[in-house]
Structure formats: structure tokens, C-alpha cells
From TrEMBL:
Segments crossing the lipid bilayer: 42-61
Key words of the record: Membrane, Transmembrane, Transmembrane helix
Protein name as catalogued: Uncharacterized protein
Length: 62
């Protein structure tokens, strides 16, 4: 078993950006599929929302 001695996998900033981007992607995918888009189109919309949200919060959170 590896001993990491207090090192975290992600910084708090990276974890927060990943959380916000994931929440936006899930919400976008659910809303897209519920509005009548195919699941594949919903997945593509989710990917775009994840990328845009991650870029935005990377810029906003200093």
C-alpha cells in the first residue's frame, strides 16, 4: 500500500473547478435529453459544457 504522507491527488482549486464543471455537464446532459435530443447529442452537449465551465472557472478562480 502506498504511503502518500498527506499529499492530495488534486489541489482544492482543481477539485472545485472539476466539481463545478461536472455539475454543469450533468445538468446540461439531463436537460438536453429531456428536451428531446438523442443521448449521443446530450453527451456531446455535456462535453462542451464541461470544457466551457472548466475554462471559465479556471479563469475566474485565482
Amino acid at each position: 500500500m502506498a504511503n502518500h504522507q498527506g499529499r492530495s491527488l488534486l489541489s482544492q482549486r482543481a477539485a472545485l473547478i472539476f466539481l463545478f464543471a461536472s455539475l454543469a455537464a450533468v445538468a446540461t446532459g439531463v436537460l438536453a435529453v429531456r428536451s428531446g435530443m438523442t443521448p449521443a447529442a446530450g453527451a456531446l452537449a455535456s462535453g462542451g459544457a464541461f470544457a466551457a465551465t472548466a475554462a471559465f472557472f479556471n479563469w475566474v478562480i485565482d
